[in-house]
Structures are given as C-alpha cells and as structure tokens.
C-alpha cells in the first residue's frame, strides 16, 4: 500500500497553535478581532501569515504591500527552510523570553522576531543575486524596527533577540544556531577592511545588552558575553567574558547559556 506524503503545511503544530490562540484572543478581547483575522485567521498557512506581516511592516510608498507579499511568497516557495527557521525562532522566543506567553505574540507584536524574518527574506534575495531589493529590505528593516542587519550576514535558526533595539550585524558576520542576544548588541568591524572583517558567533551563545563584538574573531559555542562588554579577541567555548576590553572571568555557568538566559555573574 502506498504511503501518503504530508507536507509541513498540512501538519503544522506551530501554525495550529497560533490559530487556536488567535481565536482565544478574540474571545477574550473582541477589539483585537480585526487585527487577529487580518494577521492570522485569514491565512491558510504560517508562510502566508508571515509574508503578510513582513509586507505590512516594510511596505512604503516606494514598494507596495502587494509587491512585498509577492517577494515573500516567491521566497517561501523556493526555499522552505526560511519558514522552518522562522518557526524555530518563534519557539525560541516563546521558550526564552519570560514576557512571551503565547506563540502569536512574536508573529504579531515582537519586532525582534519580525526583523530577523525580514533579514531572512533579504538574505534570500542577496543569495539569488537580487542585491538592490535586499538592500531595500535592509533599509526598511532599519527604519521600521531599529535593527540593521546586512543581508549578506549568515544567521542560523532558533534565534532570539529580546527587546531588539539598536542591533547591528555586519556584512561578513556569522551567527550560529540557538543564539540569544539582547538590545544594543553590535557585531561589527574595526575599520574599513574589504575582506572578512566581522565576528563569527558559535552555537548557543548568549550576548548581553549593549555588548560589542568587533573584528574577525570567534566566539566559541555556548559561551557568554556579559552586558556592556567590548570583545576584541577570540572567546573559547563555554566561557564567560566581561569588561572593556572583555576578558575571561569564568566558565559559562551552564551548558546552554542562550537557552537559560542567565546573565548574572554570581557564579564567577
């Protein structure tokens, strides 16, 4: 007997939960009905809802909402991994942000989640040779969300950006999977070099508020960068660095700093 193949769009627990939460939200507060229907319940899939949300946020007099939706639809159809990464980002936000109580919140309200999805769309355009469109998305993302991520940067999945104000990620930066960062983080260069000049952040890294990681350096897996630090040299895996300039002050404190979000240095 042949086995039927089912796509993620047909069996999608993340999308199903978002829809259920949307209906519950309308029951609890009817005034959000139009918002929830437009942003969630009027759509047949997570991909459609995500494309709509990005288009609503980034559209302008220079680029219509419909054009933005067409770009997003083309991207999600050509590269399903984009929406899979978005699901991982959404679940990461729910798991790590104590202010996130429902799956629908990042999709509707959280600019960190929305900005990283806009970056993913811009990165897809960049990788497919549509650089002017990708620069437009970078520009609008910066204008709307206050987050500036170069479309050539490479960012993994399961990313949580809390508060998400004044984030800067440079052109040759690389960010691994399951990374958490807070507001005002910079992954920047140190001059006008044209080559590989930005940080490489490993998997499971936690970067505290206001931290600056500068230059073509490596921050090892499951390490911790304390708030306000300026990191100018490589950081070994599973270490905590703090200060200006940052120095190793101890172990990471746990096996998964980005997931536990423990920023206290009391264990040092």
From TrEMBL:
Keywords: Acyltransferase, Amino-acid biosynthesis, Repeat, Transferase
GO BP of this protein: cysteine biosynthetic process from serine
Reaction equations catalysed: L-serine + acetyl-CoA = O-acetyl-L-serine + CoA
Residue span(s) of domain Serine acetyltransferase N-terminal: 14-118
Protein name: Serine acetyltransferase
Cellular component annotations (GO), alphabetically ordered: cytoplasm
InterPro entries (alphabetical): Hexapep (IPR001451), Hexapep_transf_CS (IPR018357), LbH_SAT (IPR045304), Ser_AcTrfase_N (IPR010493), Ser_AcTrfase_N_sf (IPR042122), Ser_O-AcTrfase (IPR005881), Serine_acetyltransferase (IPR053376), Trimer_LpxA-like_sf (IPR011004)
Source organism (scientific name): Cognatiyoonia sediminum
Pathway: Amino-acid biosynthesis; L-cysteine biosynthesis; L-cysteine from L-serine: step 1/2
Molecular function (Gene Ontology), one example: serine O-acetyltransferase activity
Family per record: Belongs to the transferase hexapeptide repeat family.
Presence of the UniProt keyword Repeat in the record: yes
UniProt-listed Enzyme Commission number(s): 2.3.1.30
Domain of life: Bacteria
């Amino acid at each position: 007997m042949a086995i039927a193949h089912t796509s993620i769009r047909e069996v999608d627990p993340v999308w199903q939960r978002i829809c259920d939460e949307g209906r519950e939200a309308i029951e609890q507060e009817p005034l959000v009905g139009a918002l929830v229907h437009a942003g969630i319940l009027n759509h047949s899939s997570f991909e459609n809802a995500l494309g709509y949300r990005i288009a609503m946020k980034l559209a302008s007099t220079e680029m219509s909402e419909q054009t933005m939706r067409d770009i997003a639809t083309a991207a999600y159809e050509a590269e399903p991994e984009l929406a899979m990464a978005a699901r991982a980002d959404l679940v990461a936000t729910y798991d790590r942000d104590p202010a996130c109580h429902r799956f629908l919140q990042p999709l509707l309200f959280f600019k960190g989640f929305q900005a990283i999805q806009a970056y993913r769309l811009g990165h897809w355009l960049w990788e497919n040779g549509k650089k002017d469109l990708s620069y437009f998305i970078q520009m609008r993302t910066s204008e709307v969300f206050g987050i500036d991520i170069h479309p050539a940067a490479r960012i993994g999945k399961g990313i949580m950006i809390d508060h998400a104000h004044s984030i800067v990620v440079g052109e040759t930066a690389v960010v691994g999977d399951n990374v958490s960062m807070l507001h005002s983080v910079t992954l920047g260069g140190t001059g006008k070099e044209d080559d590989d000049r930005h940080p490489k952040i490993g998997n499971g890294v936690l970067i505290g508020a206001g931290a600056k990681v500068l230059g073509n350096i490596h921050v090892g897996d499951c390490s911790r960068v304390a708030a306000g630090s300026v990191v100018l040299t490589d950081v070994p895996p599973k270490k905590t660095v703090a200060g200006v300039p940052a120095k190793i002050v101890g172990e990471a404190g746990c096996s998964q700093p980005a997931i536990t979000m423990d920023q206290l240095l009391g264990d040092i």
